[in-house]
Amino acid sequence: MEDKILQGQFQIPGKEGEECGGKVEFTPEDGVLVKLFNIGDELFVDKTPDRVRQIVGMSTDAEPIRLHQCSRKNISSTSGSLGRAKTKTYHAQSMFVGYPFINNNPAFDDLEVYQPLLADWADLSGPVTNLSDVTFPASKPGDILRVEYTQPDLPSVRINGIEIEIATKPTTNMGQVDLGQISVEVFWRITPRKNQVPFSQYMRTVQNLQDLLSFALAQPVGIWKLIGNVDIPYESKDVEISYQPSPNIKQSDGERAHNVLFRLDDVHSSFEEILKTWFEKSEVLTPVFHLYFATQDNSAMYVQNKLLNLTQALETYHRRSVGGTYLSEQEYEDVYQDLITFLNGQLGQRYGLKNDFTTHLRKGTFRHANEYSLGKRLGELISEHEGTLRELHWNLIGKERAVVDTRNYLTHYDEKGKAVLGKEQIHLVWGLQQLVEVCLLAEMGIPENHVVEQMSDRYRDREIK
């Protein structure tokens, strides 16, 4: 999202009907900060609440401002010729600019989500036409120049009563013909079945779409603008929304994505099923997405941390999508009780085991002994996708043990054993990343031939510089 600074008049928290000057600053890094200014002490008592549900105000451009879930950060004061001036700073969870909501929970009829690389992914980055570069036929006074834009055929999907579509909005700058320009904004439009849906109820859908585009482009993609629409008689009001992105990971804002996993054209005919599958599995697989995204396009992350993240992502993916126990829960419970009986009886008495050691066995080793090991989980995933992986450079076929030994070494930093370091560790990271991508693409129903084609290009030319 873009940085913003707004100045205006704001209601003082805890002082209904009283106003003061203030300034709102928003950056994606720090979120929404509002500074309230006052000359003198009669309005700014130190007993004003530390947390308030909302602060409302009006900008100097007559735009209504509403700040939600505000917590006080600090109070500062200075003395001058006009008396003592105090500044109170609040951190707000979100900011809404453009409409004077009556209730405490801003609600919208639909939401527009703008992302930096969405137009590139959907192959809708044009047209951008500068009319000064266009040659027009000879004309005479009274002739009309008409420029037309044909709306492309874009997908629309209904999921759980919510319509999700990729939409376009042509914009023009026609002040003078020689300076005129036509461009197209591309965005997601989210339209619930009901009217006036609270903003908080949109956020899961927004996060799912952000994750989808980030995965398709194989790099974290943020949101640069969020617009809520409120339908009122005879018009629709646009409300600009700002909030601090979460999770706070490095996000791309480039104009062109390379080495992507898939584009809209690749899945256009099956986009509805793919989007429905993504939403259906998102709650279970969200931790996998975020572990994966944290390693993408992040040169600041150590290779050791990337290996740990991606290993955890695959372990989580297998546990949540496959399961992975040797016995059923009930069967193992019987085995577990026998183990505890043996531990507390004959075994403990023979060796005089201390309580902290038996507790470790009871709550740790024995409690989780029924779960598959990391090596077995990796082996099952590699076996399931072996046909695809064999076509790709840097695959993990036959390298399960190297991943396990390296993960264990990086976790405990004890004996190195067969752990790999240096260039070989980077090769393992590429293989782990590749396996995460292959698993998730298969979950979405992306055809295997497309996966091989795209990922062959993605990994073929990788080298360590």
From TrEMBL:
Domain ApeA N-terminal residues, every copy: 7-278
Domain of life from the UniProt record: Archaea
Pfam families: ApeA_NTD1, HEPN_Apea
Residue ranges of domain Apea-like HEPN in the record: 308-448
Name of this chain's protein: ApeA N-terminal domain-containing protein
